[in-house]
């Protein structure tokens, strides 16, 4: 038995809508992602993979994953 806290959380779960997932990244760009679920039935687990839904999102993800150049700052 899982307990009342688990039951309460499970009851609040909402299934996401189908289609591309739209996320607003804190750095500014809107990302459109496709969800793909890989089932590992032998282990009773799932892996959720998010893939770019279009070329613009793929380019934005490439930009977001590039390391930012270090900035020099004066410390007195």
Structural class: alpha+beta
DSSP, total strands: 3
Q: What is the number of helices?
A: 2
How far the N terminus sits from the C terminus, by CA atoms, comes to 60 Å
What low-confidence regions span 5 or more consecutive residues with pLDDT below 50?
Answer: none
- For the biggest β-sheet, the strand order reads 1-2-3
Shape: extended
C-alpha Rg, in Å? Answer: 19 Å
Order of helices and strands: HEEEH
How much helical structure, as a percent, in the residues? 25-40%
Mean pLDDT: 83
Strand content: 25-35%
What can be said about the biggest beta sheet? 3 strands, antiparallel
Task: Describe, in plain words, how this protein is organized in 3D.
The protein is α+β, with helices and mostly antiparallel strands. 25% of the residues lie in helices and 30% in strands. A 3-stranded antiparallel β-sheet has the order 1-2-3. The longest helix has 11 residues, at 55-65. The radius of gyration is 19 Å and the shape is extended.
């Amino acid at each position: 038995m899982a307990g009342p806290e688990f039951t309460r959380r499970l009851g609040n779960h909402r299934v996401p809508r189908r289609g591309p997932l739209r996320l607003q990244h804190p750095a500014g760009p809107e990302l459109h992602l496709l969800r793909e679920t890989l089932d590992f039935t032998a282990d009773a687990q799932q892996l959720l993979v998010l893939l770019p839904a279009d070329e613009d999102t793929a380019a934005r993800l490439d930009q977001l994953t590039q390391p930012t150049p270090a900035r020099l700052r004066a410390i007195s």
